[in-house]
UniProtKB/TrEMBL annotation, chain A:
PANTHER family: ABC TRANSPORTER SUBSTRATE-BINDING PROTEIN, LEUCINE-SPECIFIC-BINDING PROTEIN. Pfam families: Peripla_BP_6 (PF13458). Residues 28-374 form the Leucine-binding protein domain. Keywords: Amino-acid transport, Signal, Transport. This is Leucine-, isoleucine-, valine-, threonine-, and alanine-binding protein. Belongs to the leucine-binding protein family. Gene3D superfamilies: 3.40.50.2300. The keyword Transport applies. Residues 1-26 form the signal peptide. The gene is braC_1.
UniProtKB/TrEMBL annotation, chain B:
It is found in: Cell membrane. This is Leucine/isoleucine/valine transporter permease subunit. It comes from the Bacteria. The keyword Transmembrane applies. The lineage of its organism: Bacteria, Pseudomonadati, Pseudomonadota, Alphaproteobacteria, Rhodobacterales. GO terms for cellular component: plasma membrane. Signal peptide: none annotated. InterPro entries: ABC_transp_permease, LivM-like. The keyword Cell membrane applies. Keywords: Cell membrane, Membrane, Transmembrane, Transmembrane helix. GO terms for molecular function: branched-chain amino acid transmembrane transporter activity.
Amino acid sequence: MNRRPFLKLVSALTIASALVASAASADTIRIGAVAPKTGPLAGGATVTQWPSIYLWVDQVNKAGGLTVDGEQMMIELIEYDDQTNPGETIKAVQRLATQDDAHFIIAPYGTGLNLAAAPLFDRYGYPQIAVSAITDQQADLSDKFPNMFFTLGTTTALAADVVKVLSDMRDAGQMGDKVAMVNVADAFGIELATAAKPLFEGAGFEIVYETSYPLGTQDLSPVIKGAAAAEPDAFVAWSYPPDTFGLTEQAMIENLDVKAFYTAVATPFPGYGARFGAAAEGVLGAGGVNPESPAFMEYAAAHEAVTGSKPDYWASATTYASLEILAQSIEAVGLDRADVTAHLKESTFETILGPISFDENNSNADFWTVGQWQGGVFKGVASRGRDGTVPVILKDGWE
Amino acid sequence: MSLTGTDIRNLFLAALALTICALLPLGDNGYWLGLGVTIAMFTALATSWALFSGPTHYISLATAAFFGVGTYVTGLGIDNLPFWSLVGLAGLIGAILAALVGLATLRLSGVYFVIFTLGLAELVRQVITWVQNNTGQKGLYVLTDLDEAGIYWWLLGLCAIVFLAGWLIGRSRLGFALRIIGDDETVAAHSGINTARAKVLLFMVPGAVAAMTGAILAPRYVYIEPSLAFAPILSFQVVIMALLGGASRLWGPLVGVIPFTFLLEAVSSNFPNQTTLVIGVAFLVIVYLLPGGFVGLLNKIMHRINTRERF
């Protein structure tokens, strides 16, 4: 018997912990970032969150850095993978705040992970400009965590504007009032369906088919077949990324004959348009942007040039806008985090989405809610306070 | 039951160690306390896991199921009931659930039991999702004034209870019966031991402890959703930490949890783009180099020293 295996393990541990100490330089602004690179949310975060962060850091540093008290400071990005695990998010934020001495930390990805990190952002006084955290609890949360800001809208607004878009189509005589509504049986899908049902009924729609399916369901043909049998005028799915693709695929196979077809999360992903091509024409989805605006076109071009991938047509641009807001605040008041938070509450910021300001609940009141694939581009068709909405078109088959 | 001098000395040392651990939040209220919470959480989970799986050799992957149930107890009850009663309630529900599961499955052995416990987390998760879907319930927010230090003390208290329970079980007839079952279940049954009853009773301990751990940690996560509460990785982490330490002694899992937490911390801070890969390699290295855990290593060293002295 020998002791060498133990010694090997000990020396490996020692080397690993020696590497933990990171050099901190005085002339750079240390920006922390923690979001999934692995785990269930990695697919969304690597489309929406990480590329916009890399693009922003690249652009700021190529321009010579941010101007802080008359001095140019470069950005040093410190990034961690939270493995879509709230315990890891907490550890990473803790590490960024106390070991890496980050000046600012970019808000995590996803509602659950943002809220797990909120007590730490609050305790260390970091402003948290959350993007992919959609909730109706803004008032309670901003009361509890005064440093937390919301940019992407509320659950109820997302559902209400879908109802409004469909009501307008019906009132214009473009379709009848029969709706098939399905949802993925998971947190956000349940919330949206719960919010939408009374709104549909209140608007005089008849829900002719209603069902749900578990997260991760592979075979969605019973859902689409059931909906088709009820002969609805509109099909609405409060769906997540895998089933957004699966439902669309089945609708093509079954040739689901509806005037409006809506799937929720991931419909604005460039991968959706790429996969379904011409069949995506007329599909409605959650989110949207104004793709014709020069600011967005410039952003999308830079995004592809720097990161090699296209941004999505919703939260990507908002993520980038949240970083523009942070940069403008730092240039205005310096590196003091309390000053930056105060500045966030009282100022209006010029971003690629247009002007953004925060209300008494730290909430951005101007956001996109519904978009539609038109001519290979996902265009915003409904928003709260944003310019550039285009008229809705009817879904005309799957060819 | 009588206490020997060694027992009294051990109890005194354990109480002293606990007091020193309890002082951590006074020394550091940030990074190290955060790691302290992680260590306390996995100590409670891995030690209680080893109480059952150590003597019986039944590998249970049900930790995530009980943990998730505990977070939901706090999530659903925090607006109506005081926090301490929710922790107790979670323990009770965890124990009852473990008893039901135990009655149904502990007559299975080997790989069948492992697979059932792995599926249990998914089963409970789907049941909760089904209820939420049918009642149209919104996301659960746990907004409390409990801070990191408070959570740490709660977990530390739970660890103390686990160690005390483990020590008492080890001295009891139940503990003796389980060691016999672990060595040879047929012999145990022929000696008149009600093996099913003994196993079910002991399986309730990790069930209750994991549910209480979940209940205590729910305020730390703030937002409770099924995919985060029932993450299956937790079950595997607990098993690996307990095995790294060694499941045959009461203090075995503890000596696995502490180095493993630091290893995970070093990996996730140095390899942000390959965290999962490096952790996977670390698992393989541990299993390959330390098959008996630190306890097994220590036993071998002791054995070698003893052998040398004899010659």
